[in-house]
Amino acid sequence: FMEALYFSLSTMTTIGYGVSDYYFGGCFTPLILVLCQVCCAITFDAVAIGLLFQRISRGHKRGKTIVFSNQAVVQRVQGTLYLMFRVGELRHHQLRDASVRAYCVRHERHVAAAVAAQPASSGESSSSGCMNDQSQQSTPTTIETTYYVTRSIKLLHENVSSDVLMSLPQMIVHRIDSQSPLGAPASWYDAVGVKHNIGSAEMEPLVNGPAGNFASH
């Protein structure tokens, strides 16, 4: 068993067979020492390679050098609304073949069922009938909510090329039309079922591209 274990250990670690008495006269002490040394060497190699790779990649620190404008602007140009924001690179060595994408994240709520109002009695006056109409309009509505729905936002520069030049600050533009997920919905319901004429959404811009150290951010 000892000879088979030592032979397997030497073969796995490519130590070699350069001694006259390969099995050390059947002694267990050299086998234990070689086994401990091999385990320490493998652990050291794994830690060193991991630290070196983490130092080279530095994806988290590299991501902090990509900055966006603090506020986005919605501007009307020839009757059409456009969403605009800027993105820039703080380092002198910019990302190569960088691409900018944007996503709209929101909660989508739909009317599941409406609770019908009770009909008014024949003896009520016309004023009570108006009150009944108002109560029918304010009747609570059953809402079904789909949380964190992600919609892709089409950017204008994607019509020509998906890459942007990060050596200079770039203006990213999105046209808000009927196909845009940022367009005003016909009706929007909040969490308690109250109807509104405006919606609520969050935009998440992303920049992706390889740097000089082959890291992606």
What would you note in describing this structure?
By secondary structure, the protein is α+β, with helices and mostly antiparallel strands. It has four helices and ten strands; from the N terminus they run αααββββαββββββ. The chain has helices at residues 2-13, 28-57, 59-63, 126-137, and strands at residues 66-68, 73-77, 80-89, 98-114, 141-153, 163-164, 170-176, 188-189, 195-196, 202-208. Strands 1, 2, 3 and 7 form a four-stranded antiparallel sheet that branches. β8 (188-189) and β9 (195-196) form a beta hairpin. α1 packs parallel to α2. Residues 115-139 have low confidence and may be disordered.
Report the radius of gyration as a whole number of Å.
33 Å
Q: What overall geometry do the principal axes of the alpha carbons give?
A: elongated
What percentage of amino acids are in beta strands?
Answer: 25-35%
Mean pLDDT across residues: 76
SSE diagram, text form:
Layout: H1 2-13, H2 28-57, H3 59-63, E1 66-68, E2 73-77, E3 80-89, E4 98-114, H4 126-137, E5 141-153, E6 163-164, E7 170-176, E8 188-189, E9 195-196, E10 202-208
Antiparallel strand pairs: 1-3, 2-3, 3-7, 4-5, 4-6, 4-10, 8-9
Give the gist of this structure.
With 217 residues, the chain is of the alpha+beta class. 27% of the residues lie in helices and 31% in strands. Strands 1, 2, 3 and 7 form a four-stranded antiparallel sheet that branches.
